[in-house]
Amino acid sequence: MKAKKQIRALVIHGPNLNLLGKREPRVYGKTSLQRINQLIQAEAKSLNIQADMVQSNHEGELVDLIGGAKVNHYSGILINPAAYTHTSVALRDALAACGVPAVEVHISNIYGREEFRHQSLTAAVCVGQVSGFGEQSYLLGLHGLVKILRNK
Ligand code: DQA
After folding, report:
1. Which atom of ligand 1 is nearest to 131's Cα?
2. Which of 4-8, 85-89, 116-120, 124-128 is the least confident region?
3. Helices 136-150 and 33-46 meet at what angle, rounded to 10?
4. CATH code, 8-150
């Protein structure tokens, strides 16, 4: 019998998320990105999957990461596109083209904030979106992604 391939998730953090913990703590909490990555890693271990984390402030680099996910043997993407959620057709097109399912996450509830944050250009090409649960959004999103990948 063929052994099942381990699920590999690429976790992508967009612009300014490197500043988490110090950045607008009333909106984004006091947890650093390093700590969030540790929480994701622990959750990945309990789900028996592999997760690799990357952060970039650069739109083109994010496009390259998304576009390279399949050839780099990732089975799915968990992404917080941050401000590019609301502006980037390039990220949307990359997510639509990448050939693996993606889940979008936000720490804050983007629908309860300024009007310009209510629109996500990227969510429609993701399998789902989690918004407003603080750092837990990443863990909930990871569970959703793994469920979709296991049902494939
Ligand atoms: C964010 C929400 C975005 O509107 C914002 O630009 C961010 C972070 C969130 O995780 O709540 O940088 O994606």
Report:
1. 11
2. 4-8
3. 30
4. 3.40.50.9100
57 Cα to the center of ligand 1, angstroms: 13
Q: 0.85 exceeded by the pTM?
A: yes
Alpha helices in the chain (DSSP H): 25-28, 33-46, 59-67, 89-97, 136-150
From 26, 36, 85, the mutation candidate for ligand 1 (largest count of ligand atoms within 8 A of CB) is 85
Ligand 1 pocket check for 80: Cβ under 6 Å? yes
For residue 33 and ligand 1, the question of a CB distance below 6 A is answered with no
Tokens representing 63 are 């496009």
Each domain of the chain, given as residue ranges in start order, spans 8-150
70 lines ligand 1 (CB under 6 A): no
End-to-end CA distance of the chain: 18
- Separation CA 72–CA 10 (nearest Å): 10
Select from 93, 85, 79 the least CA-distant residue to 51. Answer: 79
Ligand 1 atom having least distance to the Cα of 109: 11
